[in-house]
Structure formats: structure tokens, C-alpha cells
Design goal:
The chain is of the alpha/beta class. It folds into 2 domains: 100 residues, Alpha-Beta Plaits (2-Layer Sandwich); 190 residues, Vaccinia Virus protein VP39 (Rossmann fold, 3-Layer(aba) Sandwich), CATH 3.40.50. The protein contains 9 helices and 16 strands. Strand 10, helix 6 and strand 11 form a beta-alpha-beta unit. Helix 4 packs parallel to helix 5. It starts with 6 loop residues before the first strand and ends with a strand.
């Protein structure tokens, strides 16, 4: 077995609303993986794509190959901060070498198969499926995309497992790793239109489709500006409340009369705004909550 490689770890203290910009800065600097922590030191290894951790104080950590040039990286971060946030002081930046710790391997060892509903399991591709005859979604997400561990993803997967998807057309709006759309296909859907603003997410979705031995023709992945104006039977959208409200007319337009909707990525205190917005098109069902996160479902009139 090869020796674990050391990592250069850079930690930056930021406010939550700057999380996405600082994630972009670290990735542009050559970062191999990004994690977020709140003040209670609870890491989120795969923040939901397009979301910002909702904490009062955030530490963002970038892991770099130990051969990375620290001086150049610090300079790059400083310059990027000045360009984006010229009116505010540079945040605290700490760097250290992590000797003999294979972070990706440790992360992989802690990622276990998870069951959602009655039929569906999400399994990392490096582990045996616990129930070979179940509906097993094999996922190898890397460190940048959702895996099902986040409550909002779990809420959507449980809902999909309880629906009759056989032969149905589905839109996965804000697809991330493709976990929801691919789950729909494995649960019987005929075709998925996956939409995301991030080209990396679209590629991850295609990779995970292939990993699950599903035909390429069963899923199309699009940037929003290129997405076809399809009307489908089901739509799932696991993104933030702001975009869900702003994009409500577009999301509603993708569903046929009688089509089924599931929205998540939402905190419980955002429920009323979502319900007020989507009631214009949908008969909504009681909101379902899990760990302060919610799911809103309904049927299009």
C-alpha cells in the first residue's frame, strides 16, 4: 500500500455570505478539496451545490498537494480578496502541513450506504450494496457534490421513493451530482432533464449516470440558458429559497397539469414564503421537516 501523501491545509475565517466566493478563490488557486465548518466545528464535506452554509461564522478549508507553493497561493488569495472585497480587511488565513494523513481515504471510509424510503439505497461505489436486490444508486461523488447525507437531499430521495415514477418524465432542477435525477431513473422514470448553472455539476451527473450503467439517452444535462422548454410529470429542485422564489414561474412551466413537484434546500422559517409563492400554480401538501430543513410538495393545477 502506498504511503499517504501529506497535504497543505489553508484555513480562512469568513462570513457565510462570502462562502461561495472564497470557495471559487481556493479552487482557482489549485485546491483539491474544500470543506466548511461552523463555530461548533461541524464540517460539511459536500455542501449542497449552489448553497451557502447558514452560519454566523464560517471557516473554509482548502486542501492542496503539499508541493503547492504556499507563498504564491497566499498572494493569489490576497489579490482575489482585494478585487472582490476591497472595502473590507483581509480575513485570518492559517496554513499548515498535515503529515501522513490521507484525508480523501479517511472521508471515503466514513461514507456508508444509506437507505431512503422502502426501496432506495445510495451506496459509495467502493462499498458492497447491503441489499443487492434493492434499488441501489452507486455514487462516487468526490468532495464537491451532494451525496445524500444532507437533510434536504434525504427529504427529496424519500419523496421520490414514495412516488410511482414508472415511465415518467422528470426535471432535476439544480442537479448537483445528479443524485435525484438518477434516483428517479432507477426508480422507474423513463427520462430526466438535468439542469444546473455549474458545468462541473453537469459532468458529475453524466459520470454518475454512467457509473449506474444507465443509457446516456435517458438523461440530458443542460445549463439553464440552453435547457429545452419541456413539460414533464415530475420536477425536483433542491436549491436555496431565493432562487426557488425567483425561478418559480420557470419551474412551474416545466410541469404538466397534474404534474408533481418537490422543493427543498429550505430552512423551516422559509416555508411560508415558498408556500405563498408556489400556491399560485400548485395544490400544496403539508410541509415535511427534517433537522430544521423542509420539503414542500404539491400537484400542478
Amino acid at each position: 500500500m502506498e504511503n499517504p501523501m501529506p497535504w497543505l491545509q489553508i484555513k480562512i475565517e469568513i462570513t457565510p455570505e462570502r462562502s461561495e466566493q472564497y470557495e471559487d478563490i481556493l479552487l482557482a488557486a489549485g485546491c483539491a478539496a474544500v470543506t466548511f465548518e461552523d463555530t461548533k466545528d461541524h464540517p460539511i464535506f459536500e455542501p449542497e451545490l449552489g448553497t451557502t452554509p447558514l452560519w454566523s461564522h464560517t471557516t473554509i478549508t482548502g486542501l492542496f498537494d503539499a508541493s503547492h507553493d504556499l507563498q504564491q497561493t497566499r498572494k493569489f488569495i490576497d489579490q482575489a480578496h482585494q478585487q472582490l472585497f476591497a472595502d473590507s480587511p483581509m480575513p485570518s488565513v492559517k496554513a499548515e502541513i498535515l503529515e501522513d494523513k490521507d484525508w480523501e481515504r479517511a472521508w471515503m471510509e466514513n461514507y456508508h450506504p444509506m437507505q431512503f424510503g422502502n426501496r432506495l439505497w445510495v451506496c459509495p461505489s467502493w462499498r458492497e450494496a447491503p441489499e443487492p436486490d434493492a434499488v441501489n444508486l452507486m455514487l462516487d461523488p468526490g468532495l464537491a457534490f451532494g451525496t445524500g447525507t444532507h437533510p434536504t437531499t434525504a427529504l427529496c430521495l424519500n419523496w421520490l421513493d414514495g412516488e410511482v415514477l414508472d415511465g415518467k418524465q422528470v426535471v432535476d432542477f439544480g442537479c448537483g451530482s445528479g443524485i435525484l435525477g438518477i434516483a428517479a431513473l432507477l426508480l422507474g422514470a423513463e427520462h430526466v432533464t438535468a439542469i444546473d448553472i455549474d458545468v462541473q455539476a453537469l459532468q458529475a451527473t453524466r459520470d454518475n449516470l454512467q457509473r449506474n450503467k444507465l443509457a446516456e439517452s435517458r438523461l440530458d444535462a443542460w445549463l439553464p440558458e440552453n435547457a429545452p422548454a419541456v413539460e414533464v410529470d415530475y420536477l425536483v429542485a433542491n436549491i436555496l429559497a431565493g432562487p426557488l422564489i425567483e425561478l418559480a414561474p420557470i419551474i412551474a412551466s416545466h410541469l404538466k397539469t397534474g404534474g408533481r413537484l418537490a422543493l427543498s434546500g429550505l430552512l423551516s422559517n422559509q416555508a411560508q414564503d415558498i408556500v405563498d409563492t408556489y400556491s399560485a400554480w400548485f395544490e400544496l401538501e403539508p410541509v415535511v421537516e427534517k433537522d430544521d430543513w423542509i420539503r414542500v410538495t404539491g400537484t400542478k393545477r
